[in-house]
Amino acid sequence: MTFPDDCRYTKDHEWVRLEDDGLVTVGITDYAQSELGDIVFVEMEAEGTEVEAEGPFGTVEAVKTVSELFAPIAGTVESVNPDLDDAPESVNTDPYGAGWMVKLRPAQASDVDGLLSVDEYKEMIGAD
């Protein structure tokens, strides 16, 4: 399992990467995708939608279950990964790359600092 150092994490197993353009890229962690199993469908809020911190921003459907996704910070959905329509399995094969889900314009960029560090997340899930 991988946990990139350039990401912050949530208790709900989302990762967040602050980009150079001020947007944050959001997806689910390697741990989350492994727990869900084979992902067959992903549905996100539309571009322009305002989301609240810890409010829903989409759902991910796996063979075993459907799981709601929760926004790590408040902001506006700037873009949704269009490739997930045809290749939702990207979330399984490359959760921190091609499997990203949304890009948010944060209401407050400093909110990212309040999320879990890689070490705090690994401790929470009991990873080495």
Automatic annotation (TrEMBL):
InterPro entries per UniProt: 2-oxoA_DH_lipoyl-BS (IPR003016), Biotin_lipoyl (IPR000089), GCV_H (IPR002930), GCV_H/Fam206 (IPR033753), GCV_H_sub (IPR017453), Single_hybrid_motif (IPR011053)
Cofactor: (R)-lipoate
The protein's name: Glycine cleavage system H protein
Positions carrying N6-lipoyllysine: 64
This protein's encoding gene: gcvH
Keyword DNA-binding: no
Highest taxon of the lineage: Bacteria
Membership in a protein family: Belongs to the GcvH family.
Self-association state and partner proteins as the record states: The glycine cleavage system is composed of four proteins: P, T, L and H.
Task of the protein: The glycine cleavage system catalyzes the degradation of glycine. The H protein shuttles the methylamine group of glycine from the P protein to the T protein.
Domain Lipoyl-binding: 23-105
Cofactor binding note: Binds 1 lipoyl cofactor covalently.
Native source species: Rubrivirga litoralis
UniProt keyword annotations, A-Z: Lipoyl
Annotated Pfam families: GCV_H
